[in-house]
Write a structure and sequence with these properties.
three-stranded mixed β-sheet; 10 helices; about 300 residues; Rossmann fold
Length: about 300
């Protein structure tokens, strides 16, 4: 078992949505030697800045969360940026960590790395069976290259690199910017705006038929910590909740929880994204991870936090 409380841990992306929850979880485990630089303090796109960070801090463990992310619209607008920046940050960081003797490296990848038409539940062995869904393929492939890098480094250098595949995350403190947010925070913001302005109709992308598996962010943080402690193999690992819901069902739940009684209209000229997402969780269960928060409970807690921040 990797001793987290006695280790010096560098978390990239620590100021982001998942990063803030992971830092809080690690602190709750008694981890007192945490390094959590902002992107202003260290630009991971810069080799020199990244090298200076790793050399000066000498972490035992690196957990790489930093990413350029967004919903379907953001991915469509910036495919080049999403590919380059996600690839270069991870590739340089892992190489520098290896050169500086970091004991363990945890890459947090993305469910977008899976092929567009993956048999459900998604098994990790299916990762290479096809091309990802086109709207976010550059992002998904950039993150998947870090799996290749980690496995190659394990083979050649005996570098302990593991790769995690969390499904769609949500929870308190999410990004609610309509230009870059993911599905749950985007819906929350849209319904809140409609309710405040008295709109009788809310328009949503696609036809509502795709399904997604959602993982509450605090559960994700716990899963990452468990993997850092107990998982030392080269094969990728899914992190999910085992709860699948259609986008239509999700929209109806969010509208109900927010007290929005207007009509939902689906714009079928907009893309649906991947048809279905549901993960096989056998590998994560092997090191003791089970999600503890239902979608209903998680949505309620997310909405409480949203109202406290924005209303």
């Amino acid at each position: 078992m990797f001793d987290l409380p006695d280790s010096k841990i560098l978390v990239t992306g620590a100021r982001g949505f998942l990063g803030r929850h992971l830092i809080a979880h690690l602190q709750g485990l008694g981890c007192g030697k945490l390094v959590a630089p902002s992107s202003q303090e260290c630009d991971l796109r810069s080799w020199d800045q990244t090298e200076q960070l790793i050399e000066s801090q000498a972490p035992d463990l690196v957990i790489h969360l930093a990413a350029v992310v967004g919903g379907i619209a953001a991915n469509q607008r910036h495919p080049g940026k999403f590919f380059y920046e996600n690839a270069i940050m991870g590739i340089q960081l892992m190489e520098i960590a290896r050169l500086c003797g970091v004991k363990k490296f945890v890459t947090v990848g993305t469910v977008c790395a899976y092929p567009k038409f993956t048999p459900t539940p998604f098994c990790e062995e299916s990762l290479w069976d096809g091309y990802p869904e086109e709207t976010n393929a550059p992002y998904g492939l950039a993150k998947k290259m870090l799996l290749v890098q980690g496995q190659a480094y394990r083979q050649e250098y005996a570098f302990n690199s593991i790769y995690l595949l969390p499904t769609n995350l949500y929870g308190p403190g999410d990004n609610y910017d309509p230009e870059s947010s993911h599905v749950i925070p985007a819906m929350i913001h849209k319904f809140a705006q409609a309710k405040a302005s008295g709109q009788s109709v809310v328009e949503l992308w696609g036809d509502g038929s795709p399904t997604r598996e959602f993982l509450y962010v605090k559960d994700a943080a716990r899963g990452i910590a468990l993997a850092a402690q107990h998982y030392d193999e080269g094969e990728p690992v899914n992190l999910g909740s085992g709860q699948e819901a259609s986008i239509k069902e999700l929209a109806e739940r969010v509208a109900h929880e927010m007290g929005y009684a207007g009509k939902l209209v689906w714009d079928t000229s907009k893309p649906n994204g991947q048809p279905r997402r549901c993960l096989d969780l056998s590998r994560s269960r092997a090191f003791g991870f089970e999600a503890q928060t239902s979608l209903s409970e998680g949505l309620r807690e997310t909405l409480v936090a949203y109202r406290a921040s924005f209303q």
